Amino acid sequence: MAGLTSSTIGRKYAMALSAMFLLIFLVMHLSVNLLSVFGQDAYNNASQFMGYNPLIQFVMQPVLMFAVIFHFVMGFVLEIKNKKARPIGYDTNNGAANSTWMSRNMLISGAVILAFIFLHMYDFWFHEMNYKYVDGLPIEESRFWGDLHGKFADVWRVALYVISFVLLGLHLAHGFQSSFQSVGARHPKYTPVVRAIGNWYSILIPLGFIFIAIFHFVTQ
């Protein structure tokens, strides 16, 4: 890992791999959460499995947390390295003409998304850890849907989630294609396909999460 992150190219490659892992996780996370819209039992059963399966809890969950931390830390490192490499901007540089707003402000959107992740962990992960390991309460399969549903009773929390997922979509719109380019997956024949998939991904994934939040708010 030290060798992989010792150069700019290596850091970009490592960050791209962590991004791809998180892209897969978002699809899985959305798939489970969508079950809450179609039925309480389906969501409770899936959540009970995810919450008590040893492989998921003690292997996949730590890997996921490491990937999140690594991705954001590496993003900040690359941004700092880029600024140090060119401390004085070109007088005639017109960023808006050469790149999108999001590509120039990935650090800002990333920081907001990171703050949202802490809110999301406070709402669900810390509550779950307290339930299982601090209070040591027994398995109650019917509690998961109620916990999720109750979190979206307040309009301010729904608004925060919607804003965060809009920013996530903008972040993904640039990050999806960029991650493939960083690992060398760039070809005149395939790049337009990757770009199209990335555009749809950056729209559908955030919309799915927004739909879930609004659904639970209006069905209180």
Automatic annotation (TrEMBL):
Highest taxon of the lineage: Bacteria
Transmembrane segments annotated in the record for this chain: 12-35, 55-78, 106-125, 158-176, 197-218
InterPro entries (alphabetical): Cytochrome_b-558, SQR/QFR_C/D
Coiled-coil features, chain-numbered ranges: none
Protein's UniProt keywords contain Transmembrane: yes
Keywords: Membrane, Transmembrane, Transmembrane helix
Protein name: Succinate dehydrogenase cytochrome b subunit
The organism of origin for this protein: Chryseobacterium zhengzhouense
